[in-house]
Structures are given as C-alpha cells and as structure tokens.
Automatic annotation (TrEMBL):
<dbReference type="Pfam" id="PF01636">
    <property type="entry name" value="APH"/>
</dbReference>
<dbReference type="GO" id="GO:0004413">
    <property type="term" value="F:homoserine kinase activity"/>
</dbReference>
<keyword id="KW-0067">ATP-binding</keyword>
<keyword id="KW-0791">Threonine biosynthesis</keyword>
<dbReference type="InterPro" id="IPR002575">
    <property type="entry name" value="Aminoglycoside_PTrfase"/>
</dbReference>
<protein>
    <recommendedName>
        <fullName>Homoserine kinase</fullName>
        <ecNumber>2.7.1.39</ecNumber>
    </recommendedName>
</protein>
<comment type="similarity">
    <text>Belongs to the pseudomonas-type ThrB family.</text>
</comment>
<dbReference type="InterPro" id="IPR011009">
    <property type="entry name" value="Kinase-like_dom_sf"/>
</dbReference>
<dbReference type="InterPro" id="IPR005280">
    <property type="entry name" value="Homoserine_kinase_II"/>
</dbReference>
<keyword id="KW-0547">Nucleotide-binding</keyword>
<comment type="pathway">
    <text>Amino-acid biosynthesis; L-threonine biosynthesis; L-threonine from L-aspartate: step 4/5.</text>
</comment>
<keyword id="KW-0808">Transferase</keyword>
<dbReference type="InterPro" id="IPR050249">
    <property type="entry name" value="Pseudomonas-type_ThrB"/>
</dbReference>
<keyword id="KW-0028">Amino-acid biosynthesis</keyword>
<feature type="domain" description="Aminoglycoside phosphotransferase">
    <location>
        <begin position="27"/>
        <end position="258"/>
    </location>
</feature>
<keyword id="KW-0418">Kinase</keyword>
Length: 318
C-alpha cells in the first residue's frame, strides 16, 4: 500500500485540463513506492505517471524535476516532466505538489546480467555529461555532512566491533574527502540512488532511469560506485561479480574516460557508497519515522559490502 493521498478519476479530470493531454480516461494507484503517492494515468494522449509528493515541497522540487527535464531534452533516458499550458511542471493537486511524467516502458530487472550492466554504464556516463551544464546546484543531501550527523545517532545501537568499523570508516572518508585526489574528481548532478529497482528494461534494452529524489551534486565516481555496489554484486554476499563490474565500467569508460585521479579514488568511492547506504539503513532501522509503513531495508547488507570493499582488492578502473 503506497497511495497516501487518494486521487479519483473525477479529481484528475478537472485538474488535467490545464495540460494539453486531452481528457483523463483512467487512473490506477501504484503500490510499490514508499516516499510518494504514484499513479499510472491514461489520457487521450497516452499513458503517464502522476506523482503527488508527500514530503518534498514546492521549493525543493525544482532541482529534481528540472534536472529530469534537462536530461530528457538531451536524450538521456529518464521520465520527461510534462508542462501545463503555462509551462509549469509542478502543480498542486489535492493539497500536494504534483507532477506528470512520461511512463517508461518495461519493468525493472531484478537479476541483471552483464548486458544490462553495460546498458546502465553507457547511460550513466551520458547522464553525467548531459547534466554538466544544468543550472540548479544542490549538494548530495546524503553526503558527508549527513554522515557526520547520522553516525553518532546510530552508534549507540551497534556492538563494539561494529562501532569500530563505523568510526574507522568515517575517519577514512573524512581523510579521503580532504585529499588532493578527491579535489581533482569530476563532479556534477548525479542520481545517487541508481539501484536495480530504479531503472526499466524491455528485455536487454534499457528504457530509462527514474526516482531522482536523492539526486544532488557529488562526484561522478560516487554515483558509479553506488550503481556498481548494487547492480554488479552477488546479493546474498555483497561480493562483486567481475564480469558485470567489467561490463559496466567498460561501457561507462567508452563514453566518458576515467581520469587518473578517479583511478586512484575508486576503492575509496566504493567504500563511501557502501557507507552511505549502511548509514541510511541503520538510521531507518533503529529510528523509524512515526508514520513509516514499510519494513526498513536490511542494514547488515551494506555492512557486509563495506567490510568486503575494505578487505578485498577491488577490480581497478581501466
Ligand atoms: N516514469 C515511470 N515510468 C514507469 N513506471 C514508473 C515511473 N515512475 C515510477 N514508476 C513505477 O512506480 C513505482 C514507484 O515509483 P518510485 O520508486 O519513484 O516511488 P517513490 O515512492 O517515489 O520512491 P521509493 O522507490 O523511494 O519508494 C516504481 O517502482 C515503478 O514501478
Ligand atoms: N536504494 C535505497 C532505498 C532508498 O531509495 C536502499 O536500498 O537503501
């Protein structure tokens, strides 16, 4: 259950007249999201996704939706926000900010193979390049400053050995973020949450990335590390699957070649990406928000991934 604010066909019929999409024909709630109320809608012009934002405000939304518009205009495969007749892409519906975006074909790929990872690598590199001249800047709100706030909050829930891991990794990441190598890493707007359930495929053809609501400015390498840590692993152990890693890295590199600084920073970035999701999962697990309805994701998954990235040699960037 994940429609928090209901929208009837009647509600939609009046509201949709501000868009050039024809009459509303059908609306169906989508059950899988946990942040927003999402609906598939059908109008005389086709099928779309309607999202009512439950937490993000009118002031916060332009970064995400304008980024999607910017990318879609540059042929990056992402949902394109549909403007109303005044050009506005964020409009109130039933008391919430709402947007209509194009519907991506296909379904998410729960068991990606090398061919899927290569498609994702290519599109990720294209996305980074296309976002370079995006005019709105927002930091990654789940970056180092957020880790600094969150680590002390979750530490009391951990045993001593795990506390040591977290403290040691925080220090490692502080040093990394302050290093000359880090300062040389190319950066810009990134997705920052490109897990396998945030991309659609028709067979082996990628049809697009979605769920941009953790996007922000960070290093491109961090974004790639987040993506590799989910798409290219054996899920039960967290171990990297070398053919899938190689397929993703090769495809990315073919579009946007890695810099020498990135080659040196790869291992630290894989660790940073593991730490980011370990922390957010620990926080959601031990400090669930009052109205949270769904079971939180397992934090130990990213604890395992972090331990592996620290102790095992990781495949280099070529
Ligand atoms: N543009 C789109 N095209 C096709 N399907 C979409 C699109 N946007 C969302 N969906 C579908 O809606 C579901 C929920 O969307 P999404 O993951 O963005 O939800 P959310 O509540 O915003 O975020 P979260 O995944 O963090 O819970 C997706 O799993 C997907 O099936
Ligand atoms: N991708 C995140 C969930 C938030 O989108 C996780 O797996 O922890």
């Amino acid at each position: 259950m994940a429609v928090f604010t209901p929208v009837s066909l009647d509600d939609l019929s009046g509201w949709i007249s501000q868009f050039s999409l024809g009459k509303a024909l059908a609306i169906k709630g989508i059950s899988s999201g946990i942040e927003n109320s999402n609906f598939f809608i059908t109008t005389e012009s086709g099928e779309y996704v309607l999202t009512l934002f439950e937490k993000l405000s009118f002031e916060q939304l332009p970064f995400y939706l304008e980024l999607m518009r910017h990318l879609a205009q540059r042929d990056v495969l992402v949902p394109a926000p549909i403007p109303n007749k005044n050009g506005s892409i964020i409009n109130a519906l039933n008391g919430k900010p709402a947007a209509i975006v194009t519907k991506l074909e296909g379904a998410y790929q729960p068991k990606p193979q090398s061919v899927h990872c290569a498609e994702v690598g290519t599109m990720l590199a294209r996305m980074h390049l296309a976002a370079k001249d995006f005019g709105i800047r927002q930091p990654n709100l789940r970056g180092l400053p957020w880790w600094r706030q969150t680590a002390p909050v979750v530490l009391p829930y951990l045993n001593e050995e795990t506390q040591n891991l977290l403290r040691t990794e925080m220090q490692f990441q502080e040093d990394f973020a302050a290093s000359d190598i880090y300062a040389q890493l190319p950066n810009g707007p990134v997705h920052a949450d490109l897990f396998r359930d945030n991309a659609m495929f028709v067979d082996t053809r990628l049809t697009g990335f979605f769920d941009f609501y953790f996007a922000g400015c960070d290093t491109w390498l961090f974004d790639l590390a987040v993506t590799v840590n989910d798409w290219c692993i054996d899920l039960p152990t967290g171990a990297l699957d070398l053919p899938r890693v190689q397929a993703m890295l090769d495809a990315y590199h073919a579009v946007r070649p890695f810099t020498p600084a990135e080659q040196q920073a790869w291992n630290a970035s894989l660790r940073a990406a593991a730490l980011r999701f370990w922390l957010s999962r620990l926080y959601d697990f031990y400090l669930p928000r009052a109205a949270e309805m769904l079971t939180p994701h397992d934090p130990t998954h990213f604890e395992r991934i972090l331990r592996l990235r620290v102790t095992h040699a990781n495949p280099p960037l070529n």
